[in-house]
Write a structure and sequence with these properties.
Blueprint lengths: L1 H12 L7 E4 L4 H7 L4 E4 L9 H23 L7 E3 L3 H12 L4 E5 L6 H6 L5 E4 L14 E3 L6 H4 L9 E6 L6 H16 L4 E6 L4 H13 L3 E5 L5 H6 L3 E4 L3 H10 L3 E3 L9 H10 L4 E3 L7 H12 L2 H13 L5 H11 L6 H8 L1
Parallel strand pairs: 1-2, 3-4, 4-5, 5-6, 7-8, 7-10, 8-9, 10-11, 11-12
């Protein structure tokens, strides 16, 4: 999604710019990009992190060289001026192909803890754009690092937190939902309702219909006004409706909550690579904009206590909102386009000047 946001921003800035994608057959891009009508080359690539020796050898000795050759074959018809690598195993073959072809490489790391692929490839790139300043601490200081922030959709960046009566709790576990939030948050809300607290809820649970029904029933049992949905098509309206959010801490969720000034309780996915969600959440928690809750110790009683302490205190919410906005990457679009402009030789001087302004 951050790659798409960057591509859309570049096309809007430079209408004559052609953008195409390279991805993995097993990734979300295999369905999402064709649905958007994007030009995409899909590769057969598997991960090696945590894989056995047989898969590692297959990837390194067969899949990777084959993918590099496949990419370079496509480039014979239209050689790119710049490759942007956004992490993931498909990115490795694309970056290698670009280096062999002497095509400039710019990396884009969305998380506060750079992933293994970007950490490895950064030394070979011309620059790396960082979604969070904290990522600076985990990269070789000789690498050219540019803190740009993550691009947030304009409709979301235009939202500003405001007080709601009754207060409204948002629950977001990511596109697939989060089991721990789907189980624990409704139970915590039941406890609050028994104490006479007046509030409403919007809860995104993921696509499982059984989960949807179960969560709806838990809220109904406590007579809580709750809108439970598998996914949300209008995230701007979702964020605008909230007093407080309980969520995972993916890079875009954290960036979007900061732009909206939305006070948040983050429950990082404990098994995320390099614990990157905790690092993302820390960027706001360290400023008082958010609180990090450990999934291993989370239970309905402790969560109810945290929600109670934040959701019903307008002064606390106001302070958290102001702290979040102070970290908002509102200039990310322009900063990322400035980096790209350096490496796109066909852009006119006027084009580059417009971006720099």
């Amino acid at each position: 999604m951050p790659a798409l946001a960057l591509a859309d921003a570049a096309r809007a800035q430079w209408p004559n710019l052609a953008v195409s994608f390279i991805g993995a057959e097993r990734g979300l891009e295999a369905t999402l990009l064709p649905q958007r009508g994007e030009q995409v080359q899909l590769l057969t690539m598997h991960g090696v992190n945590g894989a056995g020796i047989v898969q590692r050898l297959r990837v390194l000795l067969w899949e990777l060289p084959k993918a590099v050759l496949s990419i370079r074959r496509v480039w014979k018809g239209q050689r790119p001026d710049l490759l942007v690598g956004v992490g993931g195993y498909a990115s490795i073959s694309a970056v290698l192909a670009a280096l062999i072809s002497r095509i400039p490489v710019v990396l884009y790391e969305q998380n506060a803890m750079p992933g293994l692929v970007n950490r490895t490839l950064a030394r070979f790139s011309s620059a790396i754009m960082l979604g969070f300043e904290a990522a600076n601490n985990h990269l070789n200081q000789r690498i050219r690092r540019i803190v740009t922030g993550n691009i947030v959709r304009e409709s979301i960046a235009a939202i500003r937190w405001q007080a709601h009566q009754p207060v409204h709790l948002l629950v977001l576990g990511g596109s697939q939902g989060a089991l721990v939030l789907n189980q624990t948050v409704p139970q915590a809300c039941q406890l609050l309702a028994r104490e006479g607290r007046d509030f409403s809820v919007t809860h995104i649970v993921g696509a499982n219909p059984d989960t949807l029904k179960s969560v709806q029933e838990m809220y109904a049992q406590a007579d809580i006004n709750a809108d439970v949905m598998p996914f949300c098509d209008d995230m701007a309206a979702f964020y605008a409706s909230g007093s407080l959010m309980v969520a995972r801490a993916g890079a875009m969720t954290v960036s979007e909550s900061a732009c909206c000034g939305l006070p948040s309780l983050f429950v990082p996915l404990p098994h995320a690579a390099d614990d990157h969600q905790r690092h993302n959440a820390n960027t706001l928690a360290e400023t008082g904009a958010a609180l990090i809750l450990d999934q291993q110790t989370l239970n309905p009683e402790s969560l109810a206590e945290h929600i109670d302490k934040h959701l019903f205190d307008g002064n606390v919410l106001q302070r958290m909102s102001q702290a979040a906005l102070a970290q908002a990457p509102l200039a990310a679009r322009d900063k990322q386009l400035q980096v790209l402009a350096e490496f796109l030789p066909l852009l006119s001087a006027q084009d580059k000047a417009e971006v720099s302004r």
